[in-house]
Amino acid sequence: MSFQMYIPTRILFGEGQISSLHEQKLPGTKAMIVISNGKSTKENGALNKTEQELKNAGVVMTLAKNARATMGGLFFCDRVLISDEECVSIFKKSYC
Predict the structure, then answer these.
(1) Buried b (16+ CB within 10 A) or exposed e, 33-66
(2) Model confidence over 11-57: pLDDT tens digits?
(3) H or E element in which residue 65 lies
(4) Conformation bin of residue 72: beta by default, left when phi > 0, alpha when psi is -120 to 50
């Protein structure tokens, strides 16, 4: 498999941030959400909320499920637990 991808990224981080997604200036009117199997995102309501926010923004969305199985090794990595503060620090060092 080979492909090229350009993904301009805006990160909305923190409690309640999904609710402001429809207010963001989005680069287009189509979106793809990529998830592994979606169990936790469905259970905690994040997937539903994201779909609704995109709809409110006038965005047509498609859902790519089972990304781990479909895209192979791209999603395989060891998990590293970090605190919210460490996450913010990493983000600031990388993007600010």
Answers:
(1) bebeebeebeeeeebeebebbbeebebebeeeee
(2) 888 888 999 999 998 888 888 787 877 678 888 888 899 999 999 99
(3) none
(4) left
* CA nearest neighbour of 54 among 73, 72, 28: 28
Residue ranges covered by each domain of the chain: 28-72
Helix (H, G, I), strand (E, B) or coil at 8: coil
For residue 14, give every residue at least 6 positions away whose Cβ sits within 8 Å of its Cβ, in sequence order, or none.
none
Q: How far apart are CA 42 and CA 57, in angstroms?
A: 21
Per-residue CA distances from 5 to 2, 8, 76, 78, 90 (Å): 10, 10, 19, 23, 23
Q: Which amino acid is at 78?
A: D
